[in-house]
Amino acid sequence: MLTKSLPNLFTVGNLFLGIISIILVFNNRPELAAIMVIVAMLLDGLDGRVARALNAQSEFGKELDSLSDVISFGVAPAFIMYVVAFTELNAAAAWVVTAIFPICGALRLARFNVVAGTPGYFIGLPIPAAGGVLCTLALFHKELNTVVLVLSTLLLSYLMVSTVKYPNFKKVGIPKAAIWITPVVVIVAVIVAVNYPGTLSKMIFVPLLLYALYGLKKNVERLLFRKRKRNGKSMDDVNSETRSL
């Protein structure tokens, strides 16, 4: 019974950190709130892999994961960005931009739950990646212009509901024998996150940003390919045009 429940414990841990993140925002601790979201990303990345390794996948776990993700990677990051950057905007504009992000995240998850995707790919930027990028941007808000943060929020929102394909890395699994080491990994990650928030956020930001931009680049390549195909050009011509992107 405990074995079958382990994936859901990771998911509940993800939800717990998302709630704590929102509480920290209300207590004027946005930096620590962002770190909680980043740690929640680790839990979110583990729950599905643990479930597959233990053959403990279920519809309940799938729905719980989606509900948790809306809070941890939709609502919490939006609140964090609002507090650190959007309060400088016109109130109505700030509310709209803040609300758009979790709404698009919820739409993305709803589509994921009911629409069969392409094997090996997500359709649209996954909400954990979008929330992770938004939180790391929030950590660097003092070095970034508010307009850049607003545009980044809107771009991430669009990518979540877009049809851009992103690799899902589901084939990268966890050996069943290593399952019981995962709680130790989480504890170590929490310790590192709390004690070295700046270092961790920089380490996380680069791969997340590259992942988000990868899908955007592939989408541009696909559009160029369709356009060139109509004009009789080969894929090699398209690739040469997109190498500089």
Automatic annotation (TrEMBL):
Record's catalysed reaction(s): a CDP-1,2-diacyl-sn-glycerol + L-serine = a 1,2-diacyl-sn-glycero-3-phospho-L-serine + CMP + H(+)
Claim: Lipid biosynthesis is one of the keywords in the record: yes
Documented EC number(s): 2.7.8.8
Transmembrane segments: 7-26, 122-140, 146-166, 178-197, 203-220
GO biological process assignments: phospholipid biosynthetic process
Location(s) in or outside the cell: Endomembrane system
GO cellular component term, pick one: membrane
Keywords: Lipid biosynthesis, Lipid metabolism, Membrane, Phospholipid biosynthesis, Phospholipid metabolism, Transferase, Transmembrane, Transmembrane helix
GO molecular function, one term: CDP-diacylglycerol-serine O-phosphatidyltransferase activity
Primary location class: membrane
Membrane topology, as annotated: Multi-pass membrane protein
Family: Belongs to the CDP-alcohol phosphatidyltransferase class-I family.
NCBIfam families: pssA (TIGR00473)
Designated name of the protein: CDP-diacylglycerol--serine O-phosphatidyltransferase
Native species: Paenibacillus piri
